Amino acid sequence: MTSADLIIMADRIHTMGAPGPAVTALAVRAGVITALGTREDARDWRANHTEVIELGDATVTPGLVDGHSHPVMGLGLTQGADLSAVSTIDELIRALRAAPRDGWICGWGLDPDAFGGAPITYRPLVEALGTDVPVYLTFVDAHSALASPQALALAGITGPREFASGAAIVCGPDGRPTGHLLELDAMALVRALLPAGDPADRRRRLLDLLNEMAAVGYTAGNAMDFEGDALELFRALEASGSLPMRWRFATFVTPGSSTADLARVLEQQRLCGRRWRVDGAKFMIDGTIDGGTAWLTEPDVHGESIAPLWPDPAEYAAAVRHLAARGVPTVTHAIGDAGIEYVLKTLSDLPRRSPVPHRIEHLETMPADLLPRFRALDVTASMQPTHCTHYTRADHSDNWSSRLGPDRAQRAFRCRDLREHGARLALGSDWPIAPFDPRAIIADARLRRPAGRRNTEPVVPGQALTARMALEGFTTQAAAAAGLSDRSGRVAPGFVADLAAFELDPLTADPDEFADSPVLLTLVEGEVVHRAGARVSR
After folding, report:
1. Taking a C-beta distance cutoff of 8 angstroms, is the pair 225, 283 a contact?
2. Which end of the chain is more exposed for a tag (fewer CB within 10 A), N or C?
């Protein structure tokens, strides 16, 4: 064979293919894997120019793919104070009082459970800061927010409004806003007033994020939006050097989109760079269970979550058909059982004009009769295990579970059932809704509780994935979801050299321990983008 540019050797190389002889060495040339074998075989692949990386008692896997993330939108969502550790109203008040006072006070990651079942209003904001400070806090689901009286006044919000989507300004019995804003259209009224980030700072923050993701084993990601300055940011980063991971974007299609809007989505499908491309369209058929905006067959305990985010779901179906007929793979956020069923029905009538299958995101609660339809329709199920393990509890005392009631909460996040029914299951983080570290997500998918919290009772433990299933969700299943099974997702000759190396073996290590396993090496197209203890320049 032709000599290699790079040889990697390790005690364990999981090819994620069919069982075969143990592999302890691989060769790379021009960004592609050219040979697999043993350390002894590697002697024949070497030349004077060949770089050799010996990883010893480590485990090499295909590079990991985040199935669902928001790298650009997340830059705005993570403005201000991180409130993810806040668990009570008193803690929220203390956190707000500790925040720097320089114009707007922002926060993100607030769990509605912090309100202890009490109505969500701006009262804690007023108690902490008074009525004259503009405050904007995003809840953990990123589909709802809390605004102070001053923020509402600046946005001209004095009462309820009609939106093209199912968004709402929550008002009290007196018709006055409580500060609680549901869904993106309502939230945008206040978000539009927030100070714009400095472009250079946003580029730096984005590059830092991508480097951090590469450092935990990611080689690719699926971005579920392409709005704002995404194009400028990714072009600017690539102009200054290689991206440390590759990205697929799906452009956002909102309720009320016109024919001209859909034409712009089609035009955007032509956009690409060396390690990024637009390849899909993102829809949302419903909102969230926590916010009462999901689409359920029966209302939640508050009488909410009874309607789609698209007031006329037939318009959603028409937009999906329009784009799919022109070769655009679609991605639909569907959380409630009625929403999931409607999306599956819509997809059942679509022609297949793209090698990339259509997909449905989140799938938080659904009945058994929907499970086999994913395989039958060749629809990808895309799920985020940490949504379950971080934001629900086994005793159903959390806001999500209590809204649904015990029967529907027991149908939560049916990862194992989907795999058992032959569905293609891609796993991801949904950053910044949940942390992006795939080691912890893999562990949580197996444990059905947060990694490292051994005394926490698992949530519906029968839905736990095996170690191999969890790793497949970030490798082989992720590649199939992108229509790339013939060139990525496995370690094999002819496949792109996207690789990750872990100190511990994800298939045999205790999952709590694997969640903290050092990542020794990450390669994208044969380029080292992360090496433990070393700074990688690009």
Report:
1. no
2. N
